[in-house]
Amino acid sequence: MLSLDITKTMDTNKKNGRRSFLKNTSLAALSVTALTNVSSAKDLETDRAGGCNPTTPDFYGQGPFYTQNPPEILNNQLAEVSEFGTRIIISGVVRTLDCTEVIPNAIVDVWHANDPGQYDNTGYNLRGKMLSNAQGFYMFETIYPGKYLNGTTYRPSHIHFKITPPGYPTITTQLYFEGDADLASDAASSQTSGTYNAADRIITLTDGGSGILEGTWDVIVDGDGTTTEVNDLHLENGIIYEVSPNPYSEILTIKYGVFRESNVSLAVYDMAGKLVASLAEENLSPEKYETTWEPDSSLPDGHYFVALRINDMQVHYQKTILLRSGK
Ligand SMILES: [Fe+2]
User: Fold this and answer.
1) What's the gap in Å between 39 CA and the centre of ligand 1?
2) What confidence tens digit (pLDDT) does each residue in 69-121 have?
3) Which protein residues have their CB within 5 A of the ion that is ligand 1?
4) CB neighbours of 174 closer than 8 A, spacing ≥ 6?
């Protein structure tokens, strides 16, 4: 059963609440003062830096329901359209232990129970793996996992992960969701310190504008990173604060702020990490800006992300969904 008190969890989750505030704030409500206020930008940086804790293994390890050699996830869809349940999207960036670099080509292997709380132990439904892309980004759409009994109590809804950076050990863990009434009674999700601390693995789901609940979870592990990719520890330099509408079919409007004079570029990438559009590249003074993107008709529907790069450091990105069908 899906039970989420979005308002409450946003209040209690500073990082995600702030992120959502920035995403939802209208241009009119954002003054130049706010955008050029370096101290508020530093708060953002502190939020991120405070979150740079190594990803912990789960107390229950991989559990009893892992199946070897899952298939590749196609088109970021772990759950087929016909799968019963509440649709959710989980995404994030695989980062190095100091969070300054991203890790491409990490294997992200996921599996979870269906809506009634059952695993497919004979086939591969709701099981699959993907690679983090050139920006370290991974994403999959699935359904909110159901619950199953563990002794006399229900395990909270969870998604299992095995993450393997190229040439480094696998970390096996589980992801949970804020507002789940069974978090406190579960031996794994209730861990708040030590080796199996689950605090950074309980995420908030919010409606990102597409009608699908979305959650962000960055994975922080030992691995070989790349230096000039996504790094939103540097949000003090600038931020994308709105992409709208989302989903979009013809024209996407992107609003962003630059906090100090710098060389700024705005680009759109597909889910494979391939550049599909360069929207702007120029020297900009501290101010808020707005630009539009009209995707070429040859681009397929699906997820893209808009990335803001400042002085060759990719500081921020936002996911968008191109959806022309039904028009
Ligand atoms: Fe499980």
Assistant:
1) 42
2) 999 998 789 999 899 999 998 988 899 998 878 899 999 999 999 999 999 99
3) 63
4) 58, 60, 63, 158, 159, 160, 161, 188, 189, 198, 201
DSSP labels, 134-202: TTSEEEEEEE-----EETTEEPPP-EEEEEE-TTS--EEEEEEETT-TTTTT-TTTT--SSTT--GGGE
- Residues 6 or more apart whose CB falls under 8 angstroms from that of 196 comprise 56, 57, 58, 59, 188
Residue 211 phi/psi, 5° resolution? 85, 0
Whether 277 contacts 268, CB under 8 Å: yes
Domains belonging to the chain, first-starting first, are 17-50+228-322 (2.60.40.1930), 87-220 (2.60.130.10)
Q: Which of 213, 127, 198 is nearest to 162 (CA)?
A: 127
**What's the DSSP call for residue 19?**
H
Q: How far, in Å, is the centroid of ligand 1 from the Cα of 311?
A: 43
Q: How far apart are CA 225 and CA 222, in angstroms?
A: 9
Written as six digits, the tokens of 104 are 């491409």
Report pTM: 0.67
H or E stretch at 219: strand 219-220
Cis status of the peptide bond prior to 245, with omega within 30 of 0:
yes
Q: Which of 158, 100, 164 is nearest to 132 (CA)?
A: 164
Distance 112 CA to ligand 1 centre (A): 6
| 167 CA → ligand 1 middle, Å | 27
